[in-house]
Specification:
Oligomerization is required for binding to microtubules. This protein has 493 residues and is of the alpha+beta class. Helices cover 30% and strands 25% of the residues. Strand 2 and strand 3 form a beta hairpin. The longest helix is centred in the N-terminal third of the chain and has 104 residues. The chain is elongated, with a radius of gyration of 46 Å. It starts with a helix and ends in an 11-residue tail after the last helix.
Length: 493
């Protein structure tokens, strides 16, 4: 009977998963239908706009050419009419001289004849007819303004829809996730000179499979990519995976999206556990400020509400992430006395983790490191075997030390305002770096027998934490280089 129930339960689970897949597919098809209607209308409108633009260009070109012909005709008509007027006047003058010459020839008087002949000769010599060019100034040929549109006509007859660019393929083996950056590389099925740019979309997710119809995170869009690769920089990995897809575009149309790929973007993402914080620490998700009146406020509220829990203070309350298990340190077990401490809400149980903290340089005291969850509520960081830290004392005189098990080692060099913390749980390494230059400050070598959590202390100051960071390449390289060397911090481990 139990086996049959288990078999039926498996079948039911399989059927439920199949139903979910079908429902997701139905949603996808409906969305595709809706997109089809909108896209068909859009491309028709775009086509009509392109033809209208082409008509406008042809009309403008025709108007310019007709104007050129009219101007050429007017210019030639003016030249020929001017020449015709000059010839007409010259002809009239010549006819008058010719008539005068005929009359002189008929005269019988010798003296008057000689005088008239001389005058006629002088007039003929100066006559306009002998100064005229008897060749038209301009030609009547207008063939230089003829056009042959046969190539353009053939081109227009061959006009067809612009081919859709091929679907790119993301080369997953060449993609790289490193230093909180993601480099995505893709190829196109065949060379296409008409491709103008690419559009890359990515979406954060918490599952490694293909994208689902219903996702918590929307697609983020990067447009105008000219190369076949792109690097997303300065990311904060607040999910375990990221899904990518890309499509090619030419001047008029976009192709289909590539098959999406999912890249693992694992990083150490935690928040500060307000339930563990000293009452004088005002905690928000990733920032802490020391409040001298915090404890007094808590005492007043305790008397007013008649409860021993300090969780009623709005300054102390912080919402726990739904992905986090409740802290093992209850409200009654928060740090107290001079242990101005707060822990992270996520334990390190394996692997290599990295986070950074930035503190106010005017803080009177500050510490950063890791601790066991069993760290006593009166214990100060570095003063027991359950914690390891860097400690800055800025009260009266400056001191910068590495502390563990109530032993301290002075550290040389300037104190950075931003510290990177690297923890390799299996190898028992806890290293601190200048987060800006990635220069090693100090390394603890130990053996973690229990999970550890990020730990912080501040007095008369404030700090903020940046999580969701991968181990920087520079840190990984330095760790590999130093893995075979002996530690100079053995006395503190």
């Amino acid at each position: 009977m139990a086996d049959q129930k288990e078999a039926l339960r498996k079948i039911t689970t399989t059927l439920a998963l199949k139903n979910e897949e079908i429902q997701n597919f139905v949603c996808t098809v409906k969305q595709t239908l809706q997109n089809l209607e909108g896209n068909a209308t859009r491309v028709q409108q775009d086509l009509e706009a392109e033809f209208s633009s082409l008509y406008s260009v042809l009309d403008e070109l025709k108007e310019n050419m007709v104007t050129r012909i009219k101007q050429e005709r007017a210019s030639r008509i003016y030249e020929l009419q001017s020449q015709l007027t000059a010839c007409t006047k010259a002809l009239e003058s010549s006819e008058e001289l010719l008539e005068l010459a005929n009359q002189t020839l008929c005269s019988a008087e010798t003296d008057s004849f000689n005088q008239a002949a001389k005058e006629i000769k002088d007039s003929v010599t100066m006559a306009p007819a002998f100064r005229l060019s008897l060749k038209p100034k301009v030609s009547d040929n207008m063939s230089h303004l003829m056009v042959d549109f046969s190539p353009e006509r053939n081109m227009l007859l061959a006009l067809k829809f612009l081919p859709v660019p091929g679907t790119p393929e993301i080369q997953q083996l060449e993609c790289l996730v490193c230093d909180n950056n993601v480099r995505v590389v893709w190829t196109v099925p065949e060379p296409d000179s008409k491709i103008d740019h690419y559009i890359l979309e990515y979406r954060r997710t918490n599952h490694p499979g293909p994208p689902r119809a219903k996702e918590e995170h929307p697609w983020m869009v990067v447009e105008g990519i000219r190369d076949t690769e792109y690097t997303l920089t300065g990311l904060r990995f607040d999910t375990q995976y990221m899904t990518f897809r890309v499509k090619a575009c030419n001047k008029a149309v976009a192709g289909e999206f590539s098959e999406p790929i999912t890249l693992e973007t694992s990083a150490f993402l935690f928040k500060l556990d307000a339930a563990s914080a000293h009452q004088n620490l005002r905690v928000e998700e990733l920032s802490v400020e020391w409040d001298a009146t915090g404890g007094k406020v808590q005492d007043i509220r305790k008397d007013k509400n008649r409860t021993g829990s300090p969780m009623h203070s709005p300054a102390r309350t912080a919402a726990m992430s739904p992905k986090r298990a409740p802290s093992s340190r209850g409200g009654r077990d928060r740090f107290t006395a001079e242990s101005y401490t707060v822990l992270g809400d996520l334990a390190i149980e394996g692997g290599q983790q990295y986070w950074e903290v930035r503190f106010d340089r005017d803080s009177k005291a500050f510490a950063v490191g890791v601790a066991l969850r069993s760290l006593g509520r009166f214990d100060q960081l570095g003063k027991s075997s359950a914690s390891w830290c860097l400690h800055l004392n800025n009260w009266l005189q400056l001191s910068f030390t590495a502390k563990h098990n109530n032993k301290a080692r002075s550290l040389e060099g300037p104190v950075p305002d931003r510290i990177g913390v690297y923890c390799n749980y299996e190898e028992g390494l806890l290293s601190f770096y200048n987060a800006r230059t990635k220069q090693l400050i100090h390394t603890f070598r130990s053996r973690f027998t229990q999970p550890v959590v990020p730990a912080f202390m501040v007095w008369n100051g404030s700090f903020s934490v940046q999580t969701g960071l991968q181990v920087p390449s520079a840190v990984q390289c330095l760790q590999k280089r130093n893995s075979g060397t002996s530690s100079s911090n053995a006395s503190l481990t």
